[in-house]
Design a protein that fits this description.
homotetramer; 210 residues; mainly alpha; 9 helices; 79% helix; DNA-binding
Chain lengths: 210, 210, 210, 210
DNA sequence: CATGAATGAGAATTCATTCAT
DNA sequence: GATGAATGAATTCTCATTCAT
């Protein structure tokens, strides 16, 4: 087992650097973030960061990618909940809506979105990667569920992808307004209220019994 | 009128610097933007930028403020159009929605939003200023109009401000998805389609004849 | 008399600039002193300073020269007092010594000496000018008086210039130590004590009745 | 001994920077001295200067402190020579006086004094440090010796510290006059003459057989 | 003549990156 | 493989000086 500690150590160091990088990039932005600072936050020497990730730009890409993968997983897990079943559609949508909002409003999510917005000019490819690999897939997954609910007669959506976008918009739009780009943490109760209002509007528009 | 050329010159220089600053900040971000580059873009010497605006930070603040003021004015002008009249409410909403989306998707608007997102950490006060001075006022103005339309029996909104937020969300949310943080210009026709879909959903939920 | 005010004005302005320059140069040193600051202190525009004195270096030279001339005049006036007469030689020497020390320890004198020390490297000629035009002439004048006192039998100085230098050294050396390069103002009483001690030693060495 | 070259290298670099800094500060003054120039003189990169000393001000302080420590050591070593013994007091005093003058007139000493005079306004604390840590201690040491010589009957000094100050003044005062703030190197022979004259006057005033 | 504005050259300081150990 | 030290390139800001009015 003597080597395990070291092997772990190496992996842990990689991860520690990635975590530190996210923290620092999120706090200071790409350009302002110092590699020294990241190294210090990770508890390693600056040169170690370089030996692991090559240069600042690569480190940034990997940091953002890892963060996006994580966000994707969280969001998909929530959407999965939207099974066709649910005796009470409204309650189910409200729960899913709330959970989506919680993901959306998590500190890490805001940090990631701010980072993307900030560095779109310098790293245009990151946006594509993340949209195609994460955001769009969540929307598609959501559209799938809405389509099934339409087929099963619980909803009436002519264009499920549009409906999914609008559902998400009804959630995120009002939440955006309160969150001030993530600088204010919105209480869960408020998120819940936003979700209920969103579902209410959504069902008025797309509910089967309209 | 003697001396007008020169007097204008001073003012023009201030304005040229501000325009150049917006261009460069928008393209490169606050930290990456070089004052040299801004000066060159404005056609003045670096020191002139400093003599006018003191330091880079102040220049940034003034640039952002001016840009926000301009955006506010444009948005309010659009909302004004939503007069209670309109024989055809749907058509009116669609027009207003389209125009709002055009403002929202203008290059300058995206640039401003990206800049705000990017620099929220370094300039937290800018967000407050802009939200209270611009964004919230547009929402309030929109809510006012919706309230009047409710009073006049054209709409049924229990909470006009919420309805306004949702209306705006139904517009901006789907547009966001296509615009990729402003890196893709969405054709006006597509914006129009988004607006029509938004109005459709909105009227299903809040229309008087529902 | 209408023109007088203006003519005065011009001269006053030159003088105001010179005074301001001395103040600022003395406070901040040549390199650190900003022409803006001097102009502000003088209550004129920066360009006015240039139109009067050409450039910073010339202004510095004139400032230092003027200050040195003034110091020379003050010192010579004191040495004049050392008339051959004086029933009480000791008392006369003590008075002259005190007065010399007061000149020596005046704020302006210290400021001038600090300035000279500071800028000797950049303005080597200033030193020569001042030494030959001021310091040496004071020493010579003092030596003259001591020579006369020797001829009249009041003193025994083999080399009056050496005696003058030593007399001055006995005054300024101990004062230097207390003044900390002019950062501490030494009370007149203390200066008097230094002068008395200096005269005491001087008379023991050069007094006629030894 | 492996690695000595490198380990030495680091220390040597620190020292090389300090030496270069003294040279350049002495030649150009604090404000005019460019860190580039210091770095070039030391044969290192500008950033290396910063990584060792933080900023220009700290570098200046350390440079001056080091120089003052060195001057103190040299002066004390000379004063030590003034042992009570000495069959020939006059010769001993002349030797000590000469040596003190040589220290006093060394290029480094003048440079240090000019630097202190120049930057007293910006760095008032340096003066205090140097006076209490160096100059005063030399004076005290000298006073100690004179006191012993008084006790042993070789001198008559009522106030040994005053006598020490006057002794030093008789040396440095006339030397000051010739050295023109260190811009002229005074030949040792002349210094010797000054010392002899100083001792002559001093012994007339304080000699035991007077 | 006095001025406000404009500027070019320069100076301190920082930081991503590389090397020797 | 991890590190401390060294560096070159960039960047913000200053200031003496000059013009047009």
């Amino acid at each position: 087992m003597s080597g395990t500690g070291t092997a772990r150590g190496r992996i842990d160091k990689r991860q520690a650097i990635l975590d530190a990088a996210f923290t620092v990039f999120a706090r200071e932005g790409y350009a302002q973030a110092g590699v020294d600072v990241i190294a210090a936050e990770a508890g390693v020497a600056k040169a170690t960061v370089y030996s692991h990730y090559g240069d600042k730009e690569s480190l940034f890409r990997e940091t953002v990618s890892a963060s996006a993968d994580r966000a994707l997983a969280e969001n998909l897990a929530v959407v999965e909940r939207l099974t066709g079943a649910g005796e009470d559609l409204r309650a189910t949508l409200e729960t899913v809506g709330s959970k989506l909002l919680e993901c959306y409003c998590a500190d890490r999510s805001w940090a990631l979105r701010r980072l993307l917005a900030a560095e779109t000019g310098q790293f245009p490819d990151l946006l594509d990667v993340i949209h195609t690999r994460a955001a769009d897939r969540v929307a598609e997954a959501l559209a799938d569920r809405l389509a099934r609910l339409t087929v099963s007669g619980h909803l009436r959506t002519a264009d499920p992808l549009l409906a999914a976008d609008q559902f998400f918009a009804l959630l995120s739009g009002p939440a955006d307004k309160r969150a001030r780009l993530g600088t204010r943490r919105t209480p869960d109760a408020e998120l819940r209220a936003i979700a209920e209002a969103a579902v209410d509007t959504f069902l008025k528009a797309f509910g089967a019994q309209g």
